[in-house]
Amino acid sequence: MTPPAPSRTTDGPARSRLVVLAGPTAVGKGTVAAAVRDQHPDVWISVSATTRKPRPGEVDGVHYHFVTEAEFDRLVDAGDMLEWAVVHKVARYGTPRGPVDEALSAGRPALLEIDLQGARQVRDSMPEALQVFLKPPSWEELVRRLVGRGTETEEERERRLATARDELAAEPEFDVTIVNHEVHEAADELVTLMTADPQVRP
Ligand SMILES: Nc1ncnc2c1ncn2[C@@H]1O[C@H](COP(=O)(O)OP(=O)(O)OP(=O)(O)O)[C@@H](O)[C@H]1O
Ligand SMILES: Nc1nc2c(ncn2[C@@H]2O[C@H](COP(=O)(O)O)[C@@H](O)[C@H]2O)c(=O)[nH]1
């Protein structure tokens, strides 16, 4: 799919659409974002900074910028984070501000895959961003996906599922909901939203 040229307004240069993708743990945010990356290289996807340790197979600078607590503090103190939060009561995650501005100024549709707290911060600071909620087909399927991923201990899974209940209740805050039944269908729905005229809200 070829994106339309970004809209121009009378009060500034062209800016493309910023989309926030949020939703409970293991709903498939990362998987859908990876499918978007594979199929639509024109879409820019933010690489977050985090203080959590890499999982097997995760590459620094690709999946996350893995930073120390001190480095994260420095980024926050310098005002270099568009948003950040402590997620699942364990680690800090944040969106580096500079690359987002560069992508939008270059006219690329930009995607942030972040948690509910971060989505709320972006809603305050960039109300023009489109807020998309990714929802599981059912609670049972969400648990199946979390267990099936096999990357957390039982204790960590319980903590994530507790957060997930609050996150599911926040669905009405979002502009659009996509149900992640099938990865490629969800990715296509997301790209359709990302490449629509940013002046027109769905
Ligand atoms: N549509 C789908 N159908 C079946 N399995 C899926 C689907 N989407 C994702 N999965 C699987 O669910 C698991 C969780 O996906 P993923 O890690 O992308 O979730 P996430 O929302 O990014 O999670 P977290 O917020 O914990 O980082 C993975 O094993 C992934 O392969
Ligand atoms: N507020 C932010 N949340 C983020 C960011 N990057 C990722 N996340 C969210 O963290 C959880 C856990 O991720 P995991 O990789 O440890 O499974 C998940 O909900 C992500 O969406 C960010 O920059 N800011």
UniProtKB/TrEMBL annotation:
NCBIfam families: guanyl_kin (TIGR03263). ATP binds at residues 23-30. It catalyses: GMP + ATP = GDP + ADP. This is Guanylate kinase. The keyword Kinase applies. InterPro entries: GK/Ca_channel_bsu, Guanylate_kin-like_dom, Guanylate_kinase, Guanylate_kinase_CS, P-loop_NTPase. Its EC number is 2.7.4.8. GO terms for cellular component: cytosol. It comes from Nocardioides bruguierae. Belongs to the guanylate kinase family. It is found in: Cytoplasm. Residues 16-195 form the Guanylate kinase-like domain. It is an enzyme of class 2 (transferase). The gene is gmk. One of its GO terms (molecular function) is ATP binding. Essential for recycling GMP and indirectly, cGMP.
